[in-house]
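tool_call: predict_structure(chain=1)
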Amino acid sequence: MCIVTILPSLDGGQQKTVTHPTFNHLKKFLSLDGGQQKPVTHPTFSHLKKFLSLDGGQQKPVTHPTFSMEKKVMMINSGKMCQASLASLFVLATSGAVVEAADISVVQVKGHLPSEPLAPEWQQAPVQEVAVMPQQVTPPQLAQASIDKISAQALTDGQSISWRVSWQDAASDANVDVSRFPDAVALEFPLVSDASPLMGHRGGGKVQILYWKGLWQKDKDEGFQDVQDVHPNVWSDLYWFAEGKAPHRVPEDFNNPVSHQWFIAKQAGNPTADFNKIQTAQELVAEGWGTLTPQQDSVTTATGVWKEGRWTVVFSRPLTSDDPNDYQFKPGKGKIAFAVWQGGAGNRGGRKHWSFWTNYAINTQQ
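tool_result:
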């Protein structure tokens, strides 16, 4: 039997011992606010019960993303190994983000549904702050957080829904270069009820992700950002079948399809290499780390504005669609999670800030 003592104390001084396989102590009696006992209902715990073998020493692959040692065999009752694996879970459990925040209230409005981040209609929607933390569960990890919360709002007109996400950022980072990365934000929705907020989980825990980044916004607002926009003195001697004079600009000088042969990412079908990209949002699905896949068709649009040290981004899409990989918004409660990248702090890929699931509520009677 696996026994782990939780340190430091979570209830004002008293140490608690959690004894498996029941986990009732963990689910019901962990104190997360300096003394008051609260039920811990986060899906991480149900995943732990589902994916860990606690039956007398049987070895079993641990595939849940709570553990960075994914796909490696663990002996669940082997003393220190057991305690270490559980301790990694408690790092998540004892962070403030496990405590459920208030629901994000999705307010129904009449008439125009705003897609602009600074539209006055957003004053109708209550603001809910959501805690975010550095992603330190799997490599590559974010060593240090540069923000600790985002603000979220939502409006619906009964046919579509708009989400507004805002966070502090001292500078607008919207270009890429060596060691230079763009700001970005993503919304995540579970396509199955027990999906993990950590990019879903393998074995059917699929999630949908709506993704925006500052580079795409700048492409749309100011034109495709080419090398010359970052390095004005750049020079290129030759691009086969390009038109005009060197140094050539993308996409203006590459109207001849034959000239595209030397753009390897474009030839490979990479959706981010589209010269004529006009959408600043991308829809993706995932079932755990390493499975992120772009969707071919997208019904989501997004617009971002940086003003006075703060990014504000609005995602808009229909409540429902015919795509089985799209999250379907229905009256009542649902779940949403967030991720934020601050390019100026070196955030990119897995080096991000992320949140646990936060409830939202759509009330069509408003």
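agent: Confidence is low (pLDDT under 50) at residues 1-99. Proceeding to next step.
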